[in-house]
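Same chain as my last thread, 602 residues:
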Amino acid sequence: MDSYSLLYSSTYRTGLLCGFQRLRSQKKMCDIVLEAGGVSFPCHRAFLASSSDYFWALFGETTVERLASSISLPALTPEGLEAILDFLYSGWLSISPSTLPAVLEAARYLQVETALSICERFMTDDLNAENCCCYANLAERHALLNAFESANRTIAMEMKRLLQKSKVDLLGLNIQSLMAVLDADEIPGIKEVELVMLTLEWLDENGPLPLLKSNLLLSHLRFGLVAASDLINLCHAHRAMSTPLIRSQLTRAMEYHRLGSAQPITQSRQSTLRASPNCALLVGGGPSAEWPEQEVLAFDPRSRKFSTTSCVLPRRLRNSCVCSVGGFLFVIGGEEVKQGDEDEKKSVIMATSSQVWRYDPRFGYWKQVEFMQERRAKFTCCVVEDVIYAIGGQRSHLNSDTQQSLASVEFYDMATGAWRRGATMPRPLHGHASAVLNNTIYVSGGLPGSQGNIHGSNQGENQDENREMSRDFMFWDLKSRVWEKRASMSIGRFSHRLATSHGYIYALLGMYEPFCDIERYDPLSDHWTRLKPLVTGSSNYGMVSLPSGNLLVFGGRRWSDGQEVIVKSVLEYDTKKDSWREICKLPRPLTGIECTLLPLPE
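reply #2:
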């Protein structure tokens, strides 16, 4: 058999379309006329049948239309039909926001799927606050799933602007889009009561709806985010709110407000903020270590921008701990800093605190909860299964400048709102760090107090009490309530940080030398690995671990040319690549920052 070659011409198809377009423009060899809105369009029957499933069926062997000389299409506009015919004959589709509805209608009616895909891409690329409601309705009408989802996301993100300037567009939204928007986890700058009132207005504008539909729509609202005083008024705000299903949801929301200390552990979708869960809060930092600020900054890792918040600390604190549970911010212990006046000279007065403050970002208020059993500063806290553990630290004696290190551990039982004793550490520690991996608490470094007994390997290592930073690394088995020792770090660390990422524990930086070093602990092999050190380290920085596993380090202080310098840098550590980079700057130099991730409304 002879060999042969199969070659393809990329210009032939273009030339073929150009030929048909020329015949159509000259009205030559046309054997069918399409009519829409009183306008006639001469075309070629065979070409239409090969280009559209609609025409293929229309001109079939058993249809009346196969022999007709003209066909009326009353469902289409001349503009829409002309745009689709131009597309079939040339491959070019002319669309503008004003002609889009007519073009979509023609493309759907004539079953030209390629034109529908082009329209959908146009809508997705052109979305903005002015057209998102219109595009959502068009996408829902013509079953364009990607454009529908994109339009609904845009509505949710632009809701604040739409309520102010385009409320009529929201009231004209289709019910599927409204339910999708009310189901969104992020609607910036909007209070839930505003969404409730919008939904009730929509029901008045588009109702009456069947009971099942109105219940389904209202069930997408989060009544736990509505203040108790507003919930009482909502019960009588609209007849749709009086159905048994909605009244039961309002009752559950009222019960949530009465839970007190148990609120963080009883979170549900009904009480979860519509905000990014990965907002980093910077708490308690200041331009100097001696004078922390009460202002709380927020950092968005996506935009890498800082913003001030309405959250202002009720006390001026340093060396405290912060954590988040169930969407609430907890600020625990520390040293309360006050400004005194002695012989007409300003002085700073500090007192170790046992106070615990809880901030509710849903309604923007602080609540003082049960005090710790011990006054603590320079301690560490961590969260395991919604339980807060406060570990070690240092306290000052009343009416004295002397400090005492602590070995005690206590945990906050939110169900009862009380602090309870945990397993005491083998020795007092302050300036240590902690992390949680697989629901187990790990503690590293710090300055030790008196020597105690430690279960596990490496017993008998001597530390010079109260003089040398510890290399010890321990973990607390919460079930057996015993502290056990693991492989020691390669260097002693104080005022450093621990973080977990991808199944490993990272020990970063710290005060005194060498504060640039980083190492990683593998719990499976019980082994530390030294990683690439940071070129210029710092201490008293803030750190937060992102869901991606990367670590962010905010500010801190370092020595430069024999002087202490407060820095503005924000560094990101890629744990997979073992690499650092500066991603932005703080609004001002800050040190002594405590960080946590918390959903926060704008």
